[in-house]
Amino acid sequence: MTESPGLLGLDQAELDSCVACALCLPHCPTYRVTGADTHSPRGRIALMQVVDEGIAPLTDEIVEAFDSCIQCRACETACPGDVPFGHLLEATKEFVETTRGKAPWWLKLGLRGLTRPTLLRIGSSCLAVAQRLRLVPSRRLGLPQRLPVRRRALRATGDDVWLFTGCVMDAWQRDIHLATQEVIEATGTTVRPSGDATPCCGALHTHAGLGDEARRLATRVMSALNGDNAILVNSAGCGAALKDYGRLLDSDEARAFSARVFDIHEWLADRIDEIDAIPTEPAIAERVAVVDPCHLRHVQGSHMAVRKVLEPFVSEIVELDDEGMCCGAGGAYSLVQRQLALDVRDRKTEVINRSRADLVVSANPGCSMHLAATGLTVRHPIELIAEALRAR
Amino acid sequence: MKLRRRTRADGAGQHHADPCVAELIRALGEDRVRADGAARHLASADASMFSDGAAGPVCFPDSTEHVQAIMQVAARHDRAVLPRGAGSGLSGGAAPLGDPIVVSTTRMNRVLEVDEQDRVAWVQPGVINLDLTKQVTPLGLHFAPDPSSQQVCTIGGNVANNSGGPHCLAYGVTSAHVLAVEVVLSTGEAVVLGGLEAEPSGYDLRGAFVGSEGMFGIATKIAVRLTPNPESVRTLLLSFDTVADAAATVGSVIASGLVPAAVEMMDKRCVAAVEDFVHAGYPRGAAAVLLIEVDGLQRGVEADTEKVAEIGRAHGGTVRVAADEQERALLWKGRKSAFGAVARVAPDYYLHDTVVPRSKLVEVLEAVYEIVDRYDLTAVNVFHAGDGNLHPLMAYDSREPGVNERVAAAGREILEVSLAVGGVLSGEHGIGVEKRDFMEYQFTSADLEQQALLRRSFDPHCRLNPGKVLPSAHSCADIASLSASKVNGVWG
Q1: Is the pLDDT of residue A117 over 90?
Q2: Which domains does chain B have, with CATH numbers?
Q3: Testing the interface with B: which of A25, A82, A325 to mutate, by most B Cβ within 10 A?
Q4: Can you say whether the dihedral through the CA atoms of B66, B72, B76, B81 is positive or negative?
Q5: Are strands B348-351 and B392-396 parallel, antiparallel or unpaired?
Q6: A117 and A256 share a domain?
Q7: pLDDT category, A144, cuts 50, 70, 90?
Q8: What distance, in Å, lies between the first and last C-alpha atoms of chain B?
Q9: CATH code for position A72
Q10: Is the pLDDT of residue B5 over 50?
């Protein structure tokens, strides 16, 4: 880390590593839908540079350029110079948040709610009842059409691995956790769900520039998931966040923790042969399109594992032709930047429709809910595997 | 929970104090005009090191009518106008001088019509080069000009710079692939230059327009030729212990009568940077590598592949043939990200562009290394060896005191060496600001005056992209005063 003399306090070497070649532009979802340099990675870095050097004041338009970033990090995959754009933007947003308090009050309130599991579950159940009474405009708010009123309990079967359960996913998509546990156990591995001891990974807080809160949550997760056993995560966004604790907290302990974290598909890909009696004929006849969550493909680089673990169970996997372009969900982004999120999603649904797939899978709760709001059927890859195993 | 409706960035914070901006907003709508510092600052540079001015308001038209309206507003306010595509140019062509109204073509990004039978597509200027090829791939066609920046650069920008690319060795540069262009002139009038027929009648104004660097008009629709994909393609990677062996191989391949689709060279430092990014198995130990592609009918391709390999081995090279499409794609990804990968060497680079006769490649390359060393800069070489189109790249750190002067001086010497052996100023990046003041090295005063006359016949008021290409003595613009706008900046 090179010390920064600049206003934003960014790592100077990271900031200087962009040569402005422009190869990131077509891979940026917000540049694609706006055509504006202010909405491109190269442009955002150039704006960080002029603010950092004190050449430009932190204008509303500059803040908007940073806020409009979905933080999908596809630009990092495209960058031949390995510019760590995600880190730069997170640090910039933290500076903006600290000096200007830009995040809307309702977002901060919502993010605080994520760290209170009981409250979150009660709140979601109330919301689910309200949905059934047609009191909530679910589609307009980008909510799933049918939230669960009750959830089946997760039970530990041993201590071979942790299953990280997180916040919204645990309250809204508990069934995916149950399916995940089933699949892990099919390899002869016992599971301990992390449950309320790890209420939230802090990814959304990092993205919103709430660095202190993110670090506090990271510390809490680390102390709850002690030991040496692997930590499996079935939400791409949470997995990416947990794997980044080493950098976030900058300690040996955090780096050791991050090394224990695996995306569920990544972990399963090495153990798929340990599952007994995999059917010789694929159990799922539909053509399945894999929508890669950005934080699985561009951050964790584990997206190929999804294909590998699905392959024995699915008759045909369809590749989308957009090189893993974002769907526009971006955690809380789709609430904060509604119009851009919808424009980016329109591009994605066009790509999905063009693929003529019957079914879409996504390994991230935010993405699946954002896409499902268009009427698409979106499942978690592990759910398909669990179903196929049950059909044995 | 009620979500607060937020204004979109486009159009936010517009001040209407400038009557020209107010008129642009009236003509185009608020979400198509931005006059704030952030938008103007980013429109003040392209991918080059040349940024001598500051952009005025930035417009995002999506139709010919919008571009006409912008031209009319500009005429009323006597403002310069600068078209801008992806901003990936390397000669400062899209970097403003003065404070022109910037016309960004990024929202004019539709492929309007594809005629499979006649292999012609009408596209808007903001269509990304590679997007067009991807769209027509299912038809077995592609757009042949493939600049290294093809994944980002726009076809409008290709037309403006008459861009080349690795495969232009066999297929010809952009001009050979543009049949007709709808152009909005500085008066606001829209005209069509060229035509779809094989031999259009009258003067070839299309030919004059292609490569005019945004100074003749703004292309709003372009009819491009689509090329059938070859039946078979083979890509060879040849590595050599000396740059001279690699260069000699290029000469022998061409002399043998073969016309490969592409012949690209990278030196050791370039290979290292590229390999760090793509992991394609480029040999780090080699002094130079050649990426040679042959295409055509399967039998011919097999024979040509063997012939190229033989020539390479005869010059002491080691030959690897890409086994499948995946390996081939990875090798090309490396070549086409070379200039961005230089970020691994230093934070800034100056990517030069000159053309020399193939027979002089070794001599000029040696001179390039000598010159760059002498100025204490880092030389990286990656270029289209087949047509002698050199891209010496100087990596440096612009914060080092005095380095910009050294880069400029080294660049000038490289140019002088290239011209001395019978080369030309630019292969494909355009003249822009970069080579403007060197035009007198290559052309006589009478030559330049003729070019200035042509420019004035398209744009009598010197409104479009003023201060580019033609040096001060022949330019209709007062270049010194245009550069002064930088002082005011965009943040005031």
Answers
A1: no
A2: 19-104 (3.30.43.10), 232-339 (3.30.70.3450), 346-420 (3.30.70.2740)
A3: A25
A4: positive
A5: antiparallel
A6: yes
A7: confident
A8: 39
A9: 1.10.1060.10
A10: no
pLDDT bracket for residue B403 (50, 70, 90): very high
DSSP string, A291-347: E--HIIIIII--HHHHHHHHTTTEEEEEPPSSTT---S-TTTHHHHSHHHHHHHHHH
Q: What's the ipTM?
A: 0.92
Residues 252-281 of B with CB under 8 A from A: 273-274, 276-277
Query: Given this model, what pLDDT does residue B485 score?
Result: 62
Count up the domains in chain A and report the number: 3
Q: Of residues A134 and B446, which shows the higher confidence score?
A: B446
The Cα–Cα gap between A340 and B417 comes to: 51
Final residue belonging to a domain, choices A224, A241, A269: A269
Tell me which chain A residue has its CA closest to the CA of residue B395.
A19
Using the 3D structure, point to which of A235, A269, A303 is the last residue of a domain: A269
Both A247 and A279 in one domain: the answer is no
Instruction: List all residues of chain B from 295 to 334 with a beta carbon under 8 Å from chain A.
Output: none
B268-310: pLDDT as tens digits:
999 999 999 999 999 999 999 999 999 999 999 999 999 999 9
pTM of the full structure: 0.93
Structure token digits, residue B21: 């901006």
Chain B: nearest CA to A108, how far in angstroms?
Answer: 13
The verdict on A63 and A186 lying in the same domain is: no
pLDDT band at B3 (very low <50, low <70, confident <90, very high): very low
All residues of chain B having their beta carbon less than 8 Å from the beta carbon of residue A44 are: none
* pLDDT greater than 80 at residue B16: no
8 A C-beta contact, residue A89 and residue A30? no
Q: How far apart, in whole angstroms, are the C-alpha atoms of residue A262 and residue A242? A: 9
- pLDDT category of residue B487 using cuts at 50, 70 and 90: low
Nearest Cα of chain A lies from the Cα of B342 at a distance, in angstroms, of 7
Q: Which of A140, A151, A163 is nearest to A117 (CA)?
A: A151
3-state secondary structure of B432: coil
Position B486 scores a pLDDT of 60
Q: Provide the residue range defining the domain that includes A348.
A: 275-390
Burial class (CB in 10 A: 0-12, 13-18, 19+), B446: exposed
* B62-68: long-range contacts, CB 8 A cutoff, minimum separation 24: B62/B32, B62/B107, B62/B108, B63/B108, B63/B220, B64/B182, B64/B184, B64/B190, B64/B220, B64/B221, B66/B27, B66/B28, B66/B32, B67/B103, B67/B184, B67/B218, B67/B220, B68/B184, B68/B188, B68/B189, B68/B190
Q: Are residues A85 and A121 in the same domain?
A: no
Distance CA B5, CA B123 (A): 35
Do A213 and A64 fall into the same domain?
no
Distance, in Å, from the CA atom of A86 to the CA atom of B84, rounded to the nearest integer, reads 27
Alpha carbon distance B226, B178 (integer Å): 9
Angle, nearest 10°, between helix axes A236-243 and A365-372?
Answer: 150
Q: Do A23 and B3 touch (CB under 8 A)?
A: no
Residue A42's nearest CA partner among B161, B393, B279, B343 is: B343
Residue B13: the pLDDT is 40
Quick check: is A1 in a domain?
no
Q: Does A346 lie in the same domain as A285?
A: yes
- Count Cβ–Cβ pairs < 8 Å, chain A vs chain B: 139
- Pick from A39, A56, A321: which is nearest to B37 by CB? A56
Amino acid A176: pLDDT: 96
Q: How confident is the model at residue B1 (pLDDT cuts 50, 70, 90)?
A: very low
CA nearest to B175, candidates B383, B430, B453: B430
Residue A105 covered by a domain = no
Pair (A221, A150) in one structural domain? yes
Interface probe for B, chosen from A4, A15, A17, A23 (most Cβ of B below 10 Å), is A23
